[in-house]
């Protein structure tokens, strides 16, 4: 019995010693454990705040070395796989382009091989939403051909008011200017003979001297569609969902694939 008691005592003593060692070790490690948990919590909080501020449109500017509220750039264009460049830097190809940009001036280009690029220079302001819809890239090389389709000739010869679609603002022109409502779209030195709405009501097709041209409703991106033989007033119309130009040039019916 005495031997058993001694063995039991020694065993309990060893257990107490191990427990004291473990407790001492845990006590020594406690500051490191608390520091590690605190550090981990700070990282989680920092990430949470970063995500929150990012979703609210804040970005860090390496130029000014401070966090700034961004503006939004939204582009909707045809064709959908066109390339968007911002200040010469290619962006990921997407169907509709949307991006938060730091305040500042930007050169925006939408381009595709064989098509006339769309370009604009804008200033992005904090919390601004800059939307550019109805961006269309037209053919760079437009080769006219003789028009023989009777239905398209009939469409071209329809009265202008039948061809036009009513817009929210009136389209008007004089010999040197094109207006939409009270907004001056463009002022030219050449003579303007006619101006019509393009089907999307975001572009205007017009004749200036011996050229048929197209310009955006905001006065940007003026491009050439067709050269005429004379500077006499010509009859023209847009058909086939905006992809074809029909015109009567010096008594000859012509067609041009513009997109």
Please describe what this structure looks like:
The structure is a single chain. The chain has 3 domains: 2-56; 66-136, Carboxypeptidase-like, regulatory domain (Immunoglobulin-like); 145-257, no CATH class. Mean pLDDT is 83; it is low at 46-54. A hairpin with a 2-residue loop joins strand 12 and strand 13. It is elongated and about 105 Å long. Helices cover 25% and strands 41% of the residues. It has a 4-stranded antiparallel β-sheet, with no helix packed on it. The chain has a 4-stranded antiparallel β-sheet with strand order 10-20-19-18, covered by helices on one side. By secondary structure, the protein is α+β, with helices and mostly antiparallel strands.
């Amino acid at each position: 019995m005495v031997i058993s008691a001694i063995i039991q005592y020694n065993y309990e003593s060893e257990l107490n010693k191990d427990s004291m060692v473990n407790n001492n070790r845990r006590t020594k490690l406690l500051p490191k454990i608390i520091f590690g948990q605190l550090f981990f919590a700070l990282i989680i909080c920092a990430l949470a705040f970063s995500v929150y501020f990012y979703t609210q449109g804040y970005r860090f500017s390496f130029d000014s070395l401070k966090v700034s509220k961004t503006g939004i750039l939204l582009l909707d264009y045809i064709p959908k796989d066109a390339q968007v460049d911002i200040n010469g830097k290619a962006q990921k190809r997407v169907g509709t382009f949307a991006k938060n940009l730091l305040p500042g001036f930007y050169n925006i280009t939408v381009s595709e091989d064989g098509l006339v690029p769309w370009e604009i220079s804008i200033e992005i302001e904090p919390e601004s939403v800059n939307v550019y819809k109805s961006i269309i890239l037209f053919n760079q090389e437009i080769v006219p051909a003789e028009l023989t389709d009777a239905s398209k000739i009939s469409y071209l010869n329809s009265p202008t008011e039948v061809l036009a679609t009513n817009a929210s603002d009136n389209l008007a022109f004089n010999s040197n200017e094109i207006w939409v409502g009270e907004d001056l779209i463009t002022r030219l030195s050449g003579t303007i003979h006619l101006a019509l709405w393009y089907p999307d009501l975001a572009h205007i097709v017009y004749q200036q001297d011996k050229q048929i041209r197209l310009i955006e409703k905001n006065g940007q991106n003026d491009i050439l569609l067709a050269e005429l033989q004379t500077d006499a007033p010509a009859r023209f119309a847009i058909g086939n969902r905006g992809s074809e130009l029909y015109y009567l040039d010096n008594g000859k019916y012509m067609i041009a694939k513009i997109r």
